[in-house]
Amino acid sequence: MEEKEGQKEDVKRYFSSDRVLITSQEAILAGKAYKIDELRSASSTIFSRSIMEGIIYVVIGAIILLVGIFGEISIFTILGILLLCISAVKFIVSFVKPVYSIKLSGSQGNKTVFSSEDKELVEEIVGAINQAILDKIGK
Q1: Neighbour order of strands in the sheet with 32-35
Q2: Is the pLDDT confidence value at 31 over 80?
Q3: Are 45 and 100 in contact (CB under 8 A)?
Q4: CA-to-CA distance for 93 and 29, rounded, in angstroms?
Q5: Distance from C-alpha of 29 to C-alpha of 77, rounded to nearest angstrom
Q6: pLDDT at 88 over 90
Q7: Measuring CA to CA, how many Å separate 2 from each of 24, 39, 53, 68, 139?
Q8: Burial (0-12, 13-18, 19+ Cβ within 10 Å), 20
Q9: pTM above 0.85, yes or no
Q10: What pLDDT, on the 0 to 100 scale, is given for residue 49?
Q11: Average pLDDT, the chain
């Protein structure tokens, strides 16, 4: 219990796991603490870095493949085909195994603070943070 201005305030625990602790006072995500008083909301997003990497590989691979075909340079053709194959794998992996992130909105702007491949875990953490914020506003 924490004592503030002569009142006792119970610290309520909303969620706890090995890398995350959400209480009525703070949210600790991956070792970094965020005060609930400074937060407005939490939301989840799908992290799409692999999709962008896939697009970059497609563009570069297509250019190299065209140079190889029109310039009759077999090494460029092989390299272009290889890059297009890598981009296909990146696209498949990004859709089969997406990464979910938690975005906090607060007095200091928006921050992406935690990522996991476990969608249910991320949604549970987001719900706990939002409930802590709502309970804090309701007091």
Answers
A1: 13-16, 20-23, 26-29, 32-35
A2: yes
A3: yes
A4: 26
A5: 47
A6: no
A7: 11, 20, 48, 69, 16
A8: buried
A9: no
A10: 62
A11: 85
Q: How many residues does the chain have?
A: 139
Question: What CA–CA distance (Å, rounded) separates 55 from 68?
Answer: 20
The answer to whether the beta carbons of residues 114 and 101 sit under 8 Å apart is: yes
Closest alpha carbon to 25 in 137, 125, 136, 139: 136
* Alpha carbon separation from 4 to 35, 112, 118 (Å, rounded): 16, 31, 37
DSSP H helices, 3-118, are: 49-70, 74-96
Whether 68 contacts 78, CB under 8 Å: yes
- Contact between 86 and 100 under an 8 Å Cβ cutoff? The reply is no
Spatial contact of 12 and 1, defined as CB atoms under 8 Å apart: no
- Of the candidates 103, 92, 109, 108, the residue with the CA atom closest to the CA atom of residue 129: 103
**End-to-end CA, the chain:** 17
Domain ranges of the chain: 2-44+100-110+117-138, 49-96
The sign of the torsion formed by the CA atoms of 81, 86, 92, 94 equals negative
Element at 135 (helix H, strand E): helix 119-138
Query: For residue 80, what are its two tokens?
Result: 């272009």
